[in-house]
Amino acid sequence: MEFRQSNKLSEVCYEIRGPVIQHADALEEAGHSVLRLNTGNPALFGFEAPEEITQDMIRMLPRAHGYTDSRGVLSARRAVAQRYQNLGLEVDVDDVFLGNGVSELVSMAVQALVEDGDEVLIPAPDFPLWTAVTTLAGGRAVHYLCDEQSDWAPDLADMASKITDRTKAVVIINPNNPTGAVYPKEIVEGILGLARRHGLMVFADEIYDQILYDDAVHHSAAALAPDLVVLTFCGLSKTYRVAGFRSGWLVITGPKQHAKSYLEGLTMLASMRLCPNAPAQYAIQAALGGRQSIHELTAPGGRLYEQRNVAWEKLNEIPGVSCVRPKGALYAFPRLDPKVHKIHDDEKFVLDLLLREKIQVVQGTGFNWPTPDHFRILTLPYADDLEAAIGRIGRFLSGYRQ
Ligand code: PLP
């Protein structure tokens, strides 16, 4: 008797934790040390969670033994609602759903909306969970291009040309993973204008909304479009460096009377998972209410700021490699000039790099980028480690041919 995976999975692709990982695991088991630059997990690189958050969670542990309200505990939902009220948004606790990370909420939000054959506009490159869950829900991920020449801003003309009568929603990832782009206000407004004209729901993945460098300003989609149904996603994994807690939220804003049935569906999905992990919910109020801020890490002289600089500078020093300066988030997405580096299969490139240099990055096509000429690297390692790793990638590339 053979048990085969369901056909529903046949088109689903999620490369960040994809097959190359097994090779990395095998290398480690054989005694090699592998520099894992594939997942944006701050804790792996010596970033500590603010003490206040972990202490609060520990303090609340004796009271976190039971299931909670399936949308999450009131105190945390109130803290989230206040965070968005401070941006001028009309939000109350009933508009907030907590989840086991943004990931779970992305899956619920898409499942509750998408019928077989419905289309969702998703950026290319993307954080590939959006494409994977859309496909799993029976929908079609339609990728709109982001333009490397314009600091990776979404190409609005391309987006407009891909809207059909099956398009249900548009995903905005801002600040962006994997490119590090932070979108100018007119770009966010342009996307919202298309959503308004075509009656689309807006999914705004803003998990990096506080991780900004230089003069970058984050423009919240919900704040710019109070007349549209916008679901904003954010959480504790990145800004508060507690990715392992699995704690995130989604906030619904706009004319909810047009989304009554959708919200009933979302509420049902929330109750089917019973509730999010209770102890981690208690970290939310402490995180959002406290003094702690990631600003000291992202401001000039801060660890993330310096690492972003080193990654960007050193990548651009490699012949045939160019990289747009990331303005936010925890990644860089360099380009391998096809005239210099003839790479036909970027998964093979990533595997060869791993086997030779014991460095694990993720190929650009893993982010639904259409051509095999990019990869993503984290800006999380200490500056010296990043410099050394990028030096090794440069040496590897200088002799690499496919
Ligand atoms: N959205 C984006 C753009 C991400 O980069 C990530 C994680 O890397 C997530 C969502 C998922 O985060 P969480 O840990 O809250 O599930």
TrEMBL record:
<dbReference type="InterPro" id="IPR015424">
    <property type="entry name" value="PyrdxlP-dep_Trfase"/>
</dbReference>
<dbReference type="GO" id="GO:0030170">
    <property type="term" value="F:pyridoxal phosphate binding"/>
</dbReference>
<dbReference type="InterPro" id="IPR015421">
    <property type="entry name" value="PyrdxlP-dep_Trfase_major"/>
</dbReference>
<dbReference type="Pfam" id="PF00155">
    <property type="entry name" value="Aminotran_1_2"/>
</dbReference>
<dbReference type="InterPro" id="IPR015422">
    <property type="entry name" value="PyrdxlP-dep_Trfase_small"/>
</dbReference>
<dbReference type="InterPro" id="IPR051926">
    <property type="entry name" value="Ala_Aminotransferase"/>
</dbReference>
<keyword id="KW-0663">Pyridoxal phosphate</keyword>
<dbReference type="GO" id="GO:0004021">
    <property type="term" value="F:L-alanine:2-oxoglutarate aminotransferase activity"/>
</dbReference>
<keyword id="KW-0032">Aminotransferase</keyword>
<keyword id="KW-0808">Transferase</keyword>
<feature type="domain" description="Aminotransferase class I/classII large">
    <location>
        <begin position="34"/>
        <end position="391"/>
    </location>
</feature>
<comment type="similarity">
    <text>Belongs to the class-I pyridoxal-phosphate-dependent aminotransferase family.</text>
</comment>
<protein>
    <recommendedName>
        <fullName>alanine transaminase</fullName>
        <ecNumber>2.6.1.2</ecNumber>
    </recommendedName>
</protein>
<dbReference type="InterPro" id="IPR004839">
    <property type="entry name" value="Aminotransferase_I/II_large"/>
</dbReference>
